[in-house]
Every structure is written in C-alpha cells, then in structure tokens.
Amino acid sequence: xxxxxxxxxxTVVRTMAKTAIDNEQWFSELDGVMGDGDxxxxxxxxxxxxxxxxxxxxxxxxxxxxxxxxxxxxxxVGGCSGPVWGTLFMRMGMKLRGKTEATLExxxxxxxSAIEGIMQRGGxxxxxxxxxxxxxxxxxxxxxxxxxxxxxxxxxxxxxNAAYEMREISKPWVAMRGRQSxxxxxxxxxxxxxxxxxxxxMKAIEAALK
Length: 210
What we know:
9 helices, 3% strand, Serine Threonine Protein Phosphatase 5, Tetratricopeptide repeat, mainly alpha, two-stranded antiparallel sheet
C-alpha cells in the first residue's frame, strides 16, 4: 500500500515551491508566447508566500498544512493563478483534514475534488489546454497504479511521466481558457505554462521522494 506521511507531504510542498521559484523566468517566458507573461511571477509569488510563512504553519496534520498553503496563495496572488492554485491546496487539504498519513486512494479522492473545484471556480474543463489536463493525467496514472498495486517509487514515476508527457500531448491543441484562448488558432503548437509547471513539479517530487 502506498502511504504518504506528514513529512513526505511537507517535502512535496517545499519541492513544488522550489520548482516554481527556480523556474519563475522560464514559466513567464512560456506564458509570454500567447499570454500576458506573468504566470511565472504569479506562481513564484504564491509559493514564496508559502516559504515565508512555513515555520509558522500548522503541521499537526496533512490537511492543516495544505489549508495553510491555500490561504498563503490566495492571500498573495491575484489573477487566475491565485484562485486556481489556492483551490488545489484547499480541496486537497479539506479531503485530508486531520490525517497524519494519506493513502494513495485518499490522494486520488483529493485530486478529484481539486479538479472539480478548479473547474467550478474558473469554468475550464478537461481538454481546454490548462493545468487541469496535467492534474487529470496524474489522477488517471494514480488510479492505474492503485489498481495495479504499484509501490511508491513506481507510482511516482508513472505519475511524473504522465504529467510531463501532457505538455507534448496538449501542444497541438487550441487553448480554450485563459489569456491564451484570446489568440484562437494561433495558440495551437505552443506550450501551456500551467501544464509545463505541473510536469516539472511532478518530476521534481519524484526525485525528492526517492
């Protein structure tokens, strides 16, 4: 059985933060191709807020920590990124409230809730060429790993590959939401920065938890 501890969850969050901050310029450059070029800055701002408040966060449970992350992001980031990433952490945190360990099945339920919440918040759906598509790739990979009885390393490797590959799978698509959608057909054959960011984060998480 794959089980994530409180400590491992904290490593996941810190790894996401490092990835966002280290790649701030690149993510903004990707966004600048068809968007307004501020995605990397917004994402890094949110995760810097997590880093800045980290020592004071409630770490009594996985849910408590993730809910603090949600508050930090939504309080410091406007535009699209704040509500979207805040909802991701909030929905995961609500599903894992009071838990000091999370089974893969519980993580799957949290991801489902997060995807639903982001859809409701922003009006995007799967196939619109947003980070939802990368999150869904992780969800489906985790469901397959649960069914196959994969161990932690295999589960993480498959999820990271699925998220990473989504950048190429989705590249030919026309963006249907966000700033990129304003460019219509010209958004085809470009990378969505949110999808790229999720893939980079998952690859980093896999390495960090080895």
